[in-house]
Specification:
This protein has one domain (2-163). 78% of the residues lie in helices and 0% in strands. The protein contains seven helices and no strands. The longest helix is centred in the C-terminal third of the chain and has 26 residues, at 98-123.
Length: 164
């Protein structure tokens, strides 16, 4: 039972930080997306199919939380990058090294942001795109990705017991 409590506390902490703190540390309108980073990290640590429920719930939360999002785009984008992270970590970078993690995170963060730019441009939703904000968002998320990865990897046993 204590494992469930740990996971619930982790989820609540991520949601609290995402809503309450991250928007206040924005740089050029970009701030870390802890839900995205957590999904990417879990997709490296675990099989992406086991992370699928977390991915869908995280995407729905991001869709409902953001007023700019088109309903479903966060879910689709998270599903794409979650699978891409898993594919890269299993087939291209088989060893988890600093270089492999850096490459995986930078590629998938770029694709995640690019998906949003393309969808918002196609839908003409009034989304203001700036190249500097685009790359600042990638770098900002990357800075948080490595510590979160190692933290989640350390506590992977607790997640494994609950999801299996």
């Amino acid at each position: 039972m204590s494992n469930i409590i740990v996971v619930i506390i982790f989820i609540l902490l991520i949601l609290f930080l995402q809503i309450g703190i991250m928007p206040h540390i924005a740089i050029s309108g970009a701030y870390p997306n802890l839900i995205l980073i957590s999904i990417l990290c879990l997709s490296i640590i675990r099989d992406w199919k086991k992370v699928l429920p977390w991915t869908i719930l995280g995407g729905l939360f991001l869709d409902f939380y953001s007023l700019l999002n088109i309903l479903g785009i966060s879910v689709i984008a998270l599903l794409v990058v979650s699978y891409l992270v898993y594919f890269l970590s299993q087939n291209v970078f088989k060893k988890t090294t600093f270089f492999s993690l850096t490459s995986i995170f930078l590629v998938t963060l770029f694709i995640y942001n690019l998906l949003f730019v393309v969808v918002f441009k196609i839908s003409d939703s009034g989304f203001n795109f700036s190249v500097s904000g685009f790359f600042i968002g990638i770098i900002y998320n990357f800075i948080f990705a490595l510590p979160i990865f190692y933290l989640l990897k350390k506590y992977d046993a607790k997640f494994t017991k609950i999801q299996d």
